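> forwarded from #structure-qc
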């Protein structure tokens, strides 16, 4: 009897599965959808428990994921330059109808894009990917296939591919995804969100500026907003500053990997942390108020006759010049400088600005000792890609909410550049009080580019923007944790505030810190 009952239950379950597959709103039937310039390549059910391989080395796998329908397609398939095939590839994950929370989330890309990442919505969504939280999630390659890796920009030779990458693709995919969502669930998504970092951060800014009604909430992290000028700083200005004080090899070329010794770095970081670490009330290996850090490396410069516990004056000059950022011949700042922070000597995916030597930041870069900033800066801006517009009145009046965050030790894009953009919103949008009603900016102490470093780089910005859009709860603070400091939590505080210890209680617990800061 028990065995027979199990067989009947199995048959019933399979019947439900078949019925689902054949019903009008089924996953399989999505392949029959017809939209102009859109091909649905496949639509298939993905079983619960599926785990997705890590998106990049040293990253954790994503999952296990809930059961969902994955739809893959391409928009505007075409032949481009040299007969190459182009088109905006996309994927959309649709959770079971009973599990759908009614919202849509799109995840941003990275580098030069060129791949359709698994649409799980795992970044900056806390302990569970957006898909596991009931969101429908989309991703896109932004119009081309990478040939040589994450930083392949050869597609830019094709004008349409460049335009798709620059600003078109994400809005196109969002529009198609919303149509598929409405078909599958027989009702439209209530709210739409975009979350991205690096290139994805730039994409979020572009969407708020060029397509202000597509998304209700946008999270823009470490945005690659001015890649030409940031490259000028990282690949030329900073190594040239170091090269001018580096020892030379037998041919006279500077050896940038020997610019600082290990003892130099330790001396520098000890002095920095002694000056700025405990300003938040506790010495914990983090600089919680980087904008309030008043460290001057000049205090470490060797004086006449001094050889110990100091750094050669020319090296100090090089460090200060590097961190102040590139200036032209008239002394005008062309790209912001960088902050002194706990992560500037860290190694890893994005090594800190003082992490020289093997696996350091400047191993493959120039050996030049001079740079013509005026000449270089003249040719590096690109208005198609750079999200420079500050008039976001349509976005904000439509109820849009925009959250920025940036790692303080990001060696690729200065957090001061993102902060500068954020502050520039005031003049165009009615002043600081009005801007903070729909946009906030968060510095993440110690964090390198989009993660890593001696930081608390695990936080839920998705919930922060959802609560702001749907409940009117502004995100201040956002609680952060991270592998670099097991068992520790801290509040990430909206600019211009920072986390400050209240003076009692467990210093590992965010509840014993408050957000404080100067008036803007």
């Amino acid at each position: 009897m028990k065995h027979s009952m199990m067989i009947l239950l199995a048959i019933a379950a399979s019947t439900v599965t078949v019925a689902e597959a054949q019903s009008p709103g089924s996953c399989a039937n999505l392949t029959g959808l017809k939209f102009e310039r859109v091909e649905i390549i496949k639509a298939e059910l993905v079983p619960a428990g599926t785990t997705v391989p890590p998106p990049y080395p040293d990253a954790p796998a994503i999952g296990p994921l809930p059961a969902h329908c994955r739809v893959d397609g391409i928009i505007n398939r075409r032949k481009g330059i040299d007969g190459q095939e182009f088109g905006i590839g996309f994927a959309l994950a649709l959770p079971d109808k009973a599990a759908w929370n009614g919202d849509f989330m799109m995840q941003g890309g990275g580098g030069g894009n060129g791949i359709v990442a698994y649409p799980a919505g795992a970044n900056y969504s806390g302990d569970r990917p957006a898909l596991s939280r009931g969101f429908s999630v989309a991703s896109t390659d932004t119009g081309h296939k990478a040939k040589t890796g994450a930083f392949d920009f050869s597609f830019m030779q094709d004008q349409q591919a460049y335009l798709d990458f620059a600003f078109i693709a994400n809005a196109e995919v969002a529009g198609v995804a919303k149509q598929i969502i409405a078909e599958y669930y027989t009702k439209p998504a209530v709210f739409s969100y975009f979350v991205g970092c690096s290139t994805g951060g730039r994409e979020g800014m572009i969407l708020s500026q060029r397509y202000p009604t597509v998304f209700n909430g946008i999270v823009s992290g470490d945005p690659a907003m001015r890649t030409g000028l940031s490259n000028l700083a990282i690949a030329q200005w900073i190594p040239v500053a170091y090269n001018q004080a580096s020892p030379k090899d037998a041919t006279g070329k500077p050896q940038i990997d020997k610019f600082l010794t290990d003892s130099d770095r330790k001396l520098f970081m000890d002095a920095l942390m002694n000056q700025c670490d405990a300003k938040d009330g506790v010495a914990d290996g983090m600089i919680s108020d980087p904008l309030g850090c008043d460290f001057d490396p000049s205090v470490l410069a060797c004086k006449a006759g001094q050889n110990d516990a100091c750094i050669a004056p020319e090296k100090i000059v090089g460090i200060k010049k590097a961190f102040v950022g590139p200036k032209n011949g008239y002394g005008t700042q062309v790209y912001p400088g960088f902050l002194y922070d706990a992560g500037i000597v860290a190694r890893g995916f994005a090594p800190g600005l003082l992490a020289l030597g093997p696996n350091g930041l400047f191993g493959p870069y120039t050996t030049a000792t001079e740079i013509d900033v005026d000449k270089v800066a003249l040719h590096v801006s690109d208005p198609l890609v750079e999200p420079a517009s500050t008039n976001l009145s349509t976005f904000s009046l439509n109820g849009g909410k925009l959250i920025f965050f940036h790692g303080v030790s990001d060696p690729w894009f200065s957090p001061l550049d993102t902060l500068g953009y954020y502050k520039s919103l005031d003049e165009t949008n009615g002043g600081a009080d009005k801007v903070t009603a729909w946009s906030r900016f968060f510095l993440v102490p110690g964090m390198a580019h989009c993660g890593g470093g001696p930081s608390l780089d695990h936080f839920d910005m998705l919930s922060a923007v959802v609560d702001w859009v749907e409940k009117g709860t502004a995100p201040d603070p956002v609680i952060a944790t991270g592998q670099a400091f097991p068992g520790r939590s801290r509040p990430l505080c909206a600019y211009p505030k920072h986390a400050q210890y209240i003076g009692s209680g467990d210093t590992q617990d965010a509840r014993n810190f408050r957000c404080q800061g100067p008036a803007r």
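QC bot note: DSSP finds eleven helices and 16 strands in the chain. The domain at 30-228+383-516 is CATH 3.40.50.1820 (Rossmann fold).
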